[in-house]
Specification:
The structure is a homotetramer.
Chain A lengths: L4 E2 L4 E6 L5 E7 L9 H11 L16 E3 L3 E2 L2 E2 L4 E6 L21 H8 L15 H15 L4 E9 L2 E2 L23 H14 L5 E8 L13 H10 L4 E6 L13 E4 L2 E4 L7 E2 L2 E2 L4 E7 L9 E4 L5 E4 L9 H28 L1
Antiparallel strand pairs in A: 1-2, 2-3, 3-7, 4-7, 5-6, 8-9, 8-10, 10-16, 11-16, 12-13, 14-15, 17-18
Chain lengths: 352, 352, 352, 352
């Protein structure tokens, strides 16, 4: 698969650098005659947008999306949908010092190692800004999935502080700036993030995304497993270093599931499998979790090297998130939607 | 990507059911003039083969691989390499009872939900037997990577018992039937597995695979990230429910890395990133970990339903592994090799 | 797309050399629960088989196909279908002389230029023998298309002798060894081919393939055009140097079509477009024509060079066709079936 | 392959409708550190631009291309290159009459048959306007090919009037508005086209594209044949109904080629194979020819049907080309460049 495209039939291709004139994407394979307008996409973008609280980057972007093709008189036409967002607040001056110096946890060194050139302004192509287009594409994917499928995400851990699942309340995720489902842990997160922000460091986070109403039968054996595609989707998000389906790593010490009938439908009693068996959905909620490492742009000096191989130190003065994981919630939801929509189309192709 | 193919340029397509006449694969995109014979592939298969200790399934298969195309006078020709292994010991009689009854942790229900038909004999296409072809393909991938790249795997946890990393010794992995790098934990694993085997249950495991000598620059931004492809590769292995790159989920509570020069090369001091930044290799060891859930074929009766939707119980009398994770080590190594080889070719294409 | 695979959703991967132990293919993406047995495939292979008249190569092969996977109790399961044909009559001794000498119209030089190695026995991978697997895959594709879609082919020109379309009778194609729809031209073809055979030369041919009953709406705009895929499919057949859709090159001097209603369906009055407009089927017969150049294995000495770059002459003593175009008819029919089946699945995915 | 993308490693994705706000493309897989600016692309677009003579459509577009990503400080970065052209002169009023009526030779009916909706303004996605982005992508492809590879095209037939190859002079193609290499035929073309224009009809054309300096070894056996990809590329251009490689259909009545050494390199004496044998380049010029049918937008009334299935007549008052084939020359050149660049990268991947 090309490096900047995602999906087989619901196919998203993104482009753009953090400090270029714009970012955009092309979404191909969308079924015709779906109602679609910018107003279907903008709310998802607004959820992800920087500058919504003191806990995320203060970069100011209205992130206004425009549809340039593929929609006619309010309906999709089956032809590719091009979306674009202009970059408004790209202060290149912040990034001069890192032109020649690699930030250790960033892709600075690796882009240079691969390409021998990099757009060092704001991370260029490696910037989390690219994820805005994933969120936009996800809003289109949700249109394909329809109202039966509900996708929602939450932050379940910030730094060392994990939520208590006994207190889980999805409604809470809209009531705090952390998409946190456990109101009781919120003060601890606020304190930890304020401390990090003042210290010029940052914290990692764990995000959980759940899809309800997914029909049984999506996915495919062996190399088309829907959980393998979900794993790639989530690890493909910036700074993600791990992913779990259902019980995940805890499954090492668990025993198996059981099935009963409920309302005429099979119900798996534990859903430790996270809604996927043999790479195919079971009809239970699809549950995915992923970890976002701490932001690597920090103001504390770190040992590093220059592009010429000299040892030095680096710290970054730019505006950045004390916890990028928070803004990863809508991104994770969007990737879930994209993978499900792709597999819905693939399933319809083969199995009618 | 087609459901039974893997990789973009180093492309593996597998076929075959557990109890059909044979299993096989086609490996396309292999560079020409590499020395290759069955004897390069067979040792990897022998490491994975069932029946090598009392802790793995007693199914008897010699798993003898034949090369049917793509090799001429001992060298690859650049045309597709077809490999085949005859199925020898496919006792269909073991599987009669589960013809109409779904094993809760298996793909029985989901295959039926998707296709409306399934080859119920031995798990059919969903059988771990398919992974033999991954191991075979991995041996070819290793030929492409060359001697500079060393890939090796170990089991780091069985059930609740994790290795002590302070005692890690790669040489130990060849000295016990568990690919265990910590000799001191072996007796605890033996006891846990014997207990499970007698009780007719099974245990999950966590496997770690490391690749040394991988050059910096492999991978690609955004949707061609090498760690996203590794995540898909590992989650695509049967019964895998989670994957980590480098520090993985522990990264939630970690701070960043630093770089120094060492022998003229950059060295990342912690390698918490697992050898990958921004989806591109750093030149440090690539480290991946994945969890294999407990075997779902167990002799303890479990509640389940039939294909007609009636509630019932099921237990499986077939020969199965008390811990399938053990045999997943060579499979994980092979998937690592396949992903690296694919990205080596992709990098050469774009960056010369 | 990988070099030895064809199709996006109905995906055929072939392998094997002319003089290796076997040739085979893997067909992925086949819908489940289609009745399928070797007896559905063998008749198509028998139509293509060498040795059926004095006008085609006398190589003796029973070309008996075996299904190794993907079919259970007489039905497709949705998993990959592996097919294999053993090579029986691979006389390597015929090909010694050309080990070091390039036949000018063959792929000998170009394979060496690309790979630096080639299996020179019988053309290796470049042999028309590979097309047997296309015919086998086409038989499976026809199962997907169902009885509504009828695909049939004919030879319309041999050397300089073209059929008279006024005398076209599809039934005639089964009555002569040339798939010729014009009984009156058959004696001229017999004479031309006998002359060529005795002179040790060969003749080219033009083949026409028509698909009736194809629904309107298959294909896609821009780069998924069904006629572009048909063009690639036909030019991908050995020795094909040109392809036409509908009126083809004659369209340069034609004016446009018109539409009337007939039996409640649109009918295009000329169908000069060959059943495709804007890359999408119109519901009219899909008509494709392609040219097969003269066989390059001939007994008349031709000037050429050796692998070392020395000038020399070459003639080939092996058993070959005086007109390979004849045997290309079932291959062209099969490629038509594969392209249509792929687009049928693609259409179902996007448009339901 | 996705319907609106082209190429495996050099991958072009286009978007946009004739009368939408803009058209654009994303070019992925471009090697890094190639010098690239809008001024490298604009001249190719200017060659294709409408309104340059009375023989092509009088639609006024400056077709000014902007690079939005993938280029930094004048060099490619290896990340996707987004190009956009604003639509300036989209007079929707011309197309009202055809909203409900199908033009017989256009994609009006088939788009409706497929999607149940179409952007009827100016042909929407099916408009030849999309080919501007192919030309732009081709200019980038040429950068990859470098100065050694020269690609040039010519119109060799308009209506019934073919050039005399004995008078072929590439320099002439820049001296007349037809890309005609035979000065002596130009007056006949002028007359034929003026006649067609006045009569409100149009003429088809045949275009030939040649690439010199292509190294031997590009392409791949079986389904990755470079001539199959060229065939798909050319038939994928709007209104193309046939394609030939080298001698093409004339090969039916030809005998084989011969090889001599010349300047230390093999030379094929006739190059009837058009520079490709067995799907792989020979090092001789790659020669492709394709036919463009007559423009289907004509002012002469034609019998047709409405979207509701009523019989009627249609004629089109919009501004259109009396011979779209003329403007197809730069498009054919661009598609040649794209296919060659893709195979250059593919060859480098596999064969180093």
């Amino acid at each position: 698969m090309a490096s900047n495209s995602f999906g087989l039939l619901f196919r998203v291709t993104t482009w753009g650098e953090s400090h270029g004139p714009a970012i955009g994407c092309v979404v191909d394979g969308v079924p015709p005659r779906l109602a679609l307008a910018e107003s279907d996409i903008q709310p998802a973008l607004d959820r992800r947008r920087p500058g919504t609280s003191r806990f995320v980057t203060q970069r100011r972007e209205s992130d206004t999306v425009r549809i340039l093709s593929g929609v006619f008189e309010g309906q999709t036409t089956g032809t590719p949908i091009a979306l674009v967002i202009e970059n408004e607040d790209a202060r290149s001056r912040d990034y001069g010092p890192i032109k020649e110096t690699y930030r250790p946890g960033h892709a600075d060194f690796t882009y240079d190692a691969k390409y021998g050139i990099r757009d060092y302004r704001g991370g260029g192509r490696a910037s989390a800004r690219e994820t805005a287009m994933r969120v936009a594409a996800g809003a289109i994917a949700q249109k394909i999935l329809g109202d039966e499928v509900t996708i929602r995400g939450a932050v379940v851990q910030v730094g060392e502080h994990a939520v208590d699942r006994a207190r889980w309340d999805w409604a809470e995720t809209a009531e705090n700036p952390f998409f946190c489902p456990d109101a009781a842990i919120v003060p601890a997160w606020e304190e930890a993030l304020d401390t990090a922000r003042k210290a010029g460091t940052s914290l990692g986070a764990i995000i959980e995304v759940e899809a309800d109403g997914v029909p049984a039968g999506l996915g495919a054996p062996v190399y088309g497993k829907i959980d393998a595609d979900l794993a790639a989707a989530m690890v493909g998000i910036n700074a993600v270093k791990g992913v779990e389906i259902g019980a995940g790593f805890a499954a090492a010490a668990m025993s198996g599931d059981e099935i009963r009938m409920e309302g005429g439908q099979p119900r798996f009693l534990t859903n430790n499998a996270g809604g996927v068996l043999g790479g195919i959905t079971t009809g239970q909620p699809v549950v995915v979790r992923f970890v976002v490492k701490s932001t690597s742009s920090i103001r504390t000096p770190r040992r590093t090297i220059t592009a010429k191989g000299d040892e030095t130190e680096v710290s970054t003065e730019g505006r950045h998130d004390p916890c990028v994981g928070i803004r990863a919630v809508p991104v994770g939801e969007a990737m879930m939607a994209c993978v499900l929509a792709d597999h819905l189309l693939r399933h319809r192709a083969q199995c009618g």
